[in-house]
Amino acid sequence: MLRYTLMRLGIFVGCLVVVWGLVYSGLAPRGLGDSNGLWIVTLALLFSAPISFIVLRKERDRASVQIVERVDRMKANMEASRSQEDSADDTSRAQGQAS
Questions:
Q1: Do 70 and 21 contact (CB within 8 A), yes or no?
Q2: What are the TM regions of this chain, as residue ranges (predicted)?
Q3: How far does CA 90 lie from the centroid of its chain?
């Protein structure tokens, strides 16, 4: 998961540098007034999102498998804990009714 995040961040930073260069060289339009920095970040996000979606498909699938395994493991642990609590409760109720 960390690998996917770092790769995605790397693609964004690469796009940010390219967009910054295009804006300051005059090949891409500048933002209005003082919004030039926000404009560059917005353009970089716009370009990096589809690139990340296509280029990082395999890494995203690996990350999603890890997340599903972790969630399944947590569900199994919760179910085991719940069944232990249920059996302890059933035992104490049975002892209470026997008295």
A1: no
A2: 7-25, 37-56
A3: 41
- 60-79 as b/e: b if 16+ CB within 10 A: beebeeeeeeeeeeeeeeee
Q: Could you tell me if 40 and 16 are in contact, meaning their C-beta atoms sit under 8 angstroms apart? A: yes
21/34 Cα distance (integer angstroms):
18
| Start-to-end Cα distance in the chain | 55
Residue 8 and residue 56 in contact, taking contact as beta carbons nearer than 8 Å: yes
Handedness of CA 50, 56, 60, 61 (dihedral sign): positive
pLDDT beneath 50: ranges in the chain: none
Q: How far apart are CA 92 and CA 65, in angstroms?
A: 41
Cα–Cα distance, 2 to 8 (Å, whole number): 10
At residue 33, the pLDDT reads: 75
d(CA 28, CA 20): 9
Question: How far apart (Å, rounded) are the C-alpha atoms in residues 10 and 51?
Answer: 11
